Each structure stands twice: as C-alpha cells, then as structure tokens.
Amino acid sequence: MDSNDLFTEKKHLAMPPVSNKAPTEYTVSELSRKLKRIVEEKFSCVRVRGEISKVTLARSGHLYTAMKDANAVLDAVCWKGTVSRLAVRPKEGMEVVCTGRLTTYPGRSNYQLVIETMELAGQGALLKMLEDLRQKLAAEGLFDKSLKKPIPFLPDVIGVITSPTGAVIRDIMHRLDERFPRRVLLLPVVVQGQSAAAQVTAAIHGFNALPVGSPHRPDLLIVARGGGSLEDLMPFNNEELVREAAASTIPLISAIGHETDTTLIDYAAALRAPTPTAAAEMAVPVRAELLAQVIDGERRLVSGAHRLLQQHRIHLQGLGRGLGDPKRMLESGMQRLDHLSSRIDLGLKNRLHRRSARLNELSAKLSPLALTRRAKDMLRLLSVAGERLTHTGQKILADRKVKLQNLSAMLESLSFERVLERGYAVVFDDKDGIISSASKLSPGQKIDIRFRDGKKKAVAEE
C-alpha cells in the first residue's frame, strides 16, 4: 500500500457517515409548545433593564407594555394580581429593571416577559418619581402644618411600629427607660421589601381603629426603621402609607433611617425624628429633669411664701404703731357703752309708763254699759232694715206675678191651638214640616192633618 492509498483510507475514516433519514416533522402547534417549554425552562427567572415604550391597561386588569433599548424591543405582560403589588407604576419613557420569566405567545409567534417585580433603574429616575409624588400630595394639602396633631407632653401608652428584631426597638425601649418609662405596645412589621408598605399601613390603621378610651389605644405612634439605601427605604415612600399617616388621628412620629435620610412619610407625620433614638427622646420628657424642676419650684414657692409673710408682718407692725394703745381705745369704748346702756334703760321705762297711761284711758271708754247701749242701737237699726227688705221683696214678687199672668194670657190668645178650636186644621209632611200651599203637595204624598183633638194620616190626590 503506497502513501496515496493510505491518505485516501484515513480521509474516508474521518468523514461522518451520511444519513438518509428525514428531519422530524412537527405541526405548528407542536413546535410552538416545544419552543415555549424550552424558553420557559431556560429563562425561568431573568432580570431585564430597559425603557418603557408603551403602557396599556386592559379591561381585565392585566398590564401590557414593552421594554426597549437602542437595538431591540421586548414585549412584556403583568397579570392583574401582580399589577397591584408593583412598587413602581410604569409610565412612558421610564427606565426600569423588571424581574420575571420569559414565555412565548403562540398566537402571534413572539416571546414576551412575564413581569413579577418592577423597580426604577438608577437613583435619578427614582428621585424624580418621589419628587413628583411629593408635589402631588403637597398640592392635595396632606402636608399642611394645620393638619398635624400636637404631640402629648407625657403619653400613657406609646405604639411602636417597627421590626420586632434588630437594634431599633431595643434603642427605643432603652431610651424610654432612661428618660421616662412608659407602657409600649409593639406592632411587629417588616420594614423592607414589597410587603413592608402594606404592613405598616395596616398597623397605623389598626391602632387608629381602636376605640377612644380603650386601654390599648396609644396616645402616640412611632414608625421607626434603621438606616439603609434609597431602595431599602422605598416602602416608606408608598402613597397609600403616606395618606394613612396623614389621616392618623393619633399623633405620629416618623423615625426612618438616619438624619440625612428623608422619606415621604416624614412630611405627613406630626413630627420627624432624625433617628429612632431621637423619636424616643421626643416622645417623653426626662423624668429626672421634671423632678428637679418640681423640687426647684417647690423651693422657690416656699421661699416666696416666707418672704411674703415677712413683708406682711413688717407692714402690720408699722400699722400697729400708728394705731396707738388698743387697751385705751377699748376703755373709752366700754365707758361709752355703759352710758348708752343706762340711757336705753331709762328710755324704755318712760315709754312703758306712757303706754300704760294710754291703755288705762282707752279701757275707761270701753265700759260694759256703753257697749250694751251701742249693741241695742245696732239691733234696732238691723230690725228696721229687715222689715223694709221683706216689704220690698213681697212688692217686687207681686209685680212680677201680675206681669207673668198678662204675658201668659197674651201667649194663649195667639196660640194656633185656639185657631184649631174654631174648626181649622194644620197639614204636615212626613218630616213634620208645615205645608202652607197646595202647590207644594205631590199626588200620592203622605201627609198628617192636625185637628184640635188629634192627628189623622192622609194621602194627597190630584
């Protein structure tokens, strides 16, 4: 075998065998399902950054949009149940980062992103969105100072809304114990992530829903969270949370992040604290300082009272020196009183003497003989008046009797019964009405005829 034959044999061994088998045949639906499965398995979780080019909200509640960059466009869909949970409301031209999965839509032979979460890409866009929301809420009056509730000087119950773990709640409790221990009700919530805003909103609403006068209703609320990035603090820029904080009837202190961090809930709160520790300091005064103020006030009050008493004592002593000796003043008064008493006794004796003489004089005029004579005179006058009254009454009765007899005779002479005795009669209808004319009778009408000695019934004829 020469070299040419060897080269030919090696070349033959290196070439793959040629297959005459035809490729697998698919229907359009089968191929679409196979592609859908491959795409969804390969890209089950992706993060895509791009600019929102269009936004369409269907009647069903599903959101349809598209993401684009300089060289490509990617269709995207967000189902109704996810739209309400999005941290960002997509708008035309907004640059966002979406997390979700890729799938295909066989009806149009394209692929699309199913959005699960959406967030702004870059701090600039995020800050612009927050500023737009701040201006919108400010225009509605949610941040007006007149709406802010005054912080109580010493609340009995403080409601704290924060994470149950971490340094925030420990710092608040430690500072309250140092300054003025109060009863604290902790409502635990998550302070980061998609569910944080909803939980904090529900916590504020829950505290406000407690009835006034309930021992569990706080006098003051503190919403607190430690420091973090702008993205970490985004739940406290949620519009619903800000509106709930502004509508709270319980005064609310916002203590989100560090001193340089500002969120929208800070504008709606009654008071903003730079740190959670500072919120505890704003909530209660220092007990030791209050005690010192009370003790100092008590000391100043006692000292002032002593000075006032001393001033009055000195003033009274000065007045006493100008009044003279009180004993001498009393001696003169007692002597005058004795003189007046003697004059009063003498005056009473003289007045009694005069009244006794007058009484004797009057009693002499009231002898029994004079009274008897006057009584007889009065009886005689009374007897004469009685006789005159009896005579006058009898005369009046006689005159009235004669006049009554004359009127009775006149009435008797004018009575229609006298006319009936002369042969006349009176005709009555069935209602006892007098019929004075034949024209008022109808044929067959029943009538009553009154004679001198009774009535008879009759029927009118033509």
Order of strands across the main sheet: 1-2-3-5-4
Domain count, please report it.
4
Task: Calculate the terminal CA-CA distance, rounded to whole Å.
Answer: 173 Å
At the third CATH level, what is the topology name of the largest domain?
A: Rossmann fold
CATH architecture of the largest domain: 3-Layer(aba) Sandwich
Strand content: 15-25%
Give the structural class. Answer: alpha/beta
Query: Which homologous superfamily in CATH is the superfamily of the largest domain?
Result: Succinyl-CoA synthetase domains
C-alpha geometry:
flat
- Total strand segments: 13
Count of helical regions? 13
Question: In short, what is this structure?
Answer:
This protein is an alpha/beta fold and 462 residues long. It has helices spanning 3-14, 28-42, 80-83, 123-139, 167-179, 196-209, 239-247, 264-268, 276-283, 287-323, 326-365, 368-414, 416-421, and strands spanning 46-57, 63-68, 73-78, 95-105, 110-120, 157-162, 183-188, 220-225, 252-256, 271-272, 426-428, 446-451, 454-459.
Describe the structure.
- With 462 residues, the chain is of the alpha/beta class.
- The chain has four domains: 94 residues, Nucleic acid-binding proteins (OB fold (Dihydrolipoamide Acetyltransferase, E2P)); 143 residues, Rossmann fold (3-Layer(aba) Sandwich), CATH 3.40.50; 48 residues; 42 residues, no CATH class.
- The protein is built from 13 helices and 13 strands.
- The strands form three sheets. A five-stranded mixed barrel has the order 1-2-3-5-4. Strands 7-6-8-9-10 form a five-stranded parallel beta sheet, sandwiched between helices. A three-stranded antiparallel beta sheet has the order 11-12-13, with no helix packed on it.
- The longest helix has 47 residues.
- The radius of gyration is 61 Å and the shape is flat.
